[in-house]
Amino acid sequence: MRKELLKTVRRVVIKIGSRVLTDSGGALDMTIIGRICDDIAILRQQGLEVVIVSSGAIAAGRSELGLTDKPHTIPHKQAAAAVGQTRLMHAYEGSLAPHNIKVAQVLLTSEDLGSRQRFLNARATIDALLGFGIIPIINENDTVVVEEIKFGDNDNLSALVTNVAEAHLLLILTDIEGFYSEDPHTHPDATLIPLIKAITREVERAAGSTSSTVGTGGMATKVAAAKKAGKNGVATIMVSGKQHGIITAALRGEQVGTLFLPSSIGVNRRKHWIAYTLKPSGRIVVDDGARNALLKKGKSLLPSGVVRVEGRFERGACVRLYGLDEVEFARGLSDYSSSEADRLIGCKSLEIEVILGYHYGDVIIHRDNLVLL
Question: Alpha-carbon torsion 56, 32, 157, 49, what sign?
Answer without folding.
Answer: positive
